[in-house]
Amino acid sequence: MTDRKDIEIVQTTDSPAEVRDLILEMIHQSNEEEFGPSNMQMLRLFLRGEDGQILGGLWGRTVFKWLYVELLAVPEKLRGRGLGRELLARAEAEARQRGCIGAWLETYSPRSRRLYEACGYTLFGSMIDCPPGGARSFMSKRLDTL
Known about the structure:
Elements: H1 17-35, E1 41-48, E2 54-63, E3 66-73, H2 83-97, E4 102-107, H3 110-118, E5 122-128, E6 135-142
Parallel strand pairs: 3-4
Antiparallel strand pairs: 1-2, 2-3, 4-6, 5-6
C-alpha cells in the first residue's frame, strides 16, 4: 500500500452538487477513454397542466447508444389515460432518432413493472428485498429490432 497521509476520506450526507459533478466527469472521461465517445444527451419530457404547472414526466438520457429512463412519474389522478405509455413511446422515438439500440430502466413498483412489460420491456435483473418485502427490477427493451 502506498503512503496515504496526504489523503483524507470524508463521509457526509450532504455535499455541494459540484462534488457529484466532479466524480461523474471522472467516470465519463474514463469510460470514453475505454469505449469511445458516449454521445450523452439529456432527454426530458414533461406533463404540463392547463395552468402551466408541471404535473409529471420523464427524465432520462441517451449514452453509448442506450436510453436510460431515470425517472418516470404520472400523478395518481392522471393514471389510466395512457400518459405513461406515451411518455415512454416518445422517449423511445427520440432515442431511435439519436441512433440508440435499446432502452433500460429500473423500478421498485410492481404496478410500474406491469406497465413497462406491457410496453415491451423485459426483466434482466432484480434485487430481492429491496425494499424489504419487495424487489427492485431492472428492465430493458431493444429498439433496433422493432
